[in-house]
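Give me structure tokens for this 441-residue protein.
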Amino acid sequence: MKEKFDFRNRLLIIILMALNIIFLTADKNIISAVLIQVENEFNVTTADLGLMSFLFTIVGAAVSLIWGYFTDKVDRKKLFAYSICAAEIPCALTYFAPNFTVFFILRILTGIGVGAAFPIVFSLLGDIFDKKGRTLAAAILTTCWGIGGLLGVMVAGYAIGAGLGWRLPFVMIALPNFILIGLFYFIIPDIPKGASEDALKELIARGLRYPGIIKLKDYIRLAKIKTNLLLFIQGLAGNLPWGALFLLIKFLQTERGFDVNEATTIYGIFGVGAATGGVIGGAIGGKLFGIKPVYQPLLSGISTITGAFITLSILYFVPNDFIVVAITGFFGAAWASITGANIRNMLLSVNRPEDRGPIFSIFNLTDSVGFGIGEYIAGTLAVMIGITHALGVSFAFWIPCGTIILIAAIFFGRDVANLDNQMQEVALKMKLSSESVAENL
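Here you go.
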């Protein structure tokens, strides 16, 4: 067991998972760069595509609840492989969509696979990395969601700029993951539950099995953990702005007068800022967590509120200059992205190993509801009051999001201590059970 989880193998696991996530998330964000072309070809409105994006997210999140429950029941590698294939097959087939109805259905099917992968990823992460490494690992994987979104937009935007059309990017993004998921499935060893818990890791390494198994009635227990509830609520508010960002390239073109290549480049710089903020913020948050757990939500809440004001300034105060818009967007996205990895570590730090798949499926649902509502509201408001104000209303939701995270700081330290105590009790039961079996032999 120790050989399977040395630094080299952990590094290999995180690299393969990261690449899978990048291309998986790119599937979702292609639509951001092809809005104008799809609207023109299928004779639909931004509101129609906002509804499609909303259902893409919500249906996928609903399916992830089932996947989250079964992460504790069946082989997680198989589940992850199935989710990747469920996303990439319809994504590639989007190239052939003859009308908007088929296009709509294929996008929803892609969303099912994207949503299903989320709880599996973080269930695995919680068993691969211990407390010292989880925040940075979560930061890397969370950042990959942003990098994937950036990749989808960049590939599609530049493909259109080069005259390749809007269909080819769906195939270009889907194909790599068929190879990557094969490598993941056949190279990565089985990852036992509870392998990274301080109280359990030696027992797991000796071959003992973690006894916890999730039951449907346990979902009530999950809801009683106040950190869980508050992080679910903040996800609803905090993902509204991210959902609205599917309008950003169109905003830069129609409201600021940038051409498609300039708008795509600015979007890319936003994405680099988000990735930078996610990794650096995750590293800082991990250090703060090691000093005192409460510092992690304090960092996240303050950075989220600050990021809201920076991004709002882009809409209403920043001059119409490529360099100024790009730099301001970089720092706004960086500040707003500090929260992502830290929130995920907070959930890992207050939930048992058998609860992490289910808890992240619920977290994905609340995040996705917020994201999907953001897409739908932004698309609708863009028609009613214009893209600028639609984005402004959306970005303002980061302020209540950050406030809720600050409230979560009141309960987080206590919930972390409760989990540590529970793991000590489980370790004692595992030892006693093992000794009893040995005596009877």
